Amino acid sequence: MNTNGNFYTFIYTAVIVVAVAAVLAFVSQSLKARQEANEKADTISQMMTAAGFATKAEFQKMGNAAVLARYAEEIGSAVLVNVQGEQVGELDLSEVFSPADLKKQNYLLKGDKAEARIPVFTFKNGIIVVPVYGAGLWGPVWGYIAFEPPSGGQFDIKGAYFDHESETAGLGAKIKDDPAFQAEFQGESPDFHADRIFEIVKGGSLKEDGEEVLDNQVDAITGATMTSQGLEAAINTWLEAYAKYFIANEPTDDVETSNEED
Amino acid sequence: MNAKIKETLLNPIFKGNPITVLVLGICSSLAVTVTLKGALVMTLSVIVVTGISSLILSLLRNTIPSRVRIIVQLVVVAMMVILVDQVLKSFEATYAIDKQLSVYIGLIITNCIVMGRIEAFALGNKPWPSFLDGVANGAGYGLILLVVAFFRELLGSGTLFGVDILCRFGYVTNNLVILPPFALILLGCIVWIQRSVQKDLQEK
Fold it and tell me: Domain boundaries in chain B?
């Protein structure tokens, strides 16, 4: 048979492509449920890592079922808010806000802000967790920032966990892999009244004596300027969207209150 | 086992190793050898992809129009890579490691070993030897990967398969070993050792 004719070539490639597409579609459909279960447990463990319940490695050892059980035990409420800081809905506690959901809301935050519905997770011990999402160098970056139960007039960060799709291993990927980078966020307090709520700066978040220059700055990652800038933009876009919610729920300053009582 | 099959199986592992002799697949061997677990999963994935793609393309070899043969090879290899990735994502045990290897599983398609062996061997040989050739080349690649990963995890993190080996004796982990350049240095040493053992590899 002549396998080099034009007609044969067209038919052959068409058949191969359709056959491969059919196989891939079938496999994708049949494995979808399992993959979504893995992603859900992963998302929950990222939130709980930020909130300091355990480390990511410990959650990985626990397995999916144990992660979900722990979450059900600890989570207090999950609500949706708009950029005006008003609560506009509630999330089913058995559901999570997946990176795909974050992507949708991120799109709205960049355009039709008023339509955005962003989640606030509050654990029973008072820790508040909010997500952030944005563009890194090669693909999306996202993460979760956990705040201590509000006190003393500001919101202190309890912890943060970041993830990415395809940042460079050893450089941008450090936002996920370098515990030291994530640890920098602990104890910082974003300034919800400022234009730039949070900053990731180049070599200058600490003074020579180790004191912090500002409470809302951490050091960027060397060799990963674009990823650092992308993450900074992600954090600012999202915290800005949450600003009114946080300001509305701002704790009354303990000192001032006591003065007034006097 | 006849001599030819034996040759097909053993040659890619030592004498004609795809990494150290053919110098294929260097890029991914720098990227995925930080931990032994990652290297092992990558090895198994590559063995599956090379073996089965070679088998499929060898079965099809007499029907493929020669003008589009590279495209057909690409489609089949891409399908295998996506299948492997999807399966790794589906199991609890491999989900985290798939995330860690991230783009490199998808990039198996660009690993020259896969297309190289299909073009050089599978298109001219019967299915069974082609399958063995694919598996053996994947294994030859994986062997080097595991050797490099062994040293990088041991010296870089002080662990093997995540189990603490050196740190309990007060070993301070070496960050240089974690970074990609050290994999290149190690690969160089392996090539050096292999060429001093197998004198026929040395150029006159």
Answer: 3-142
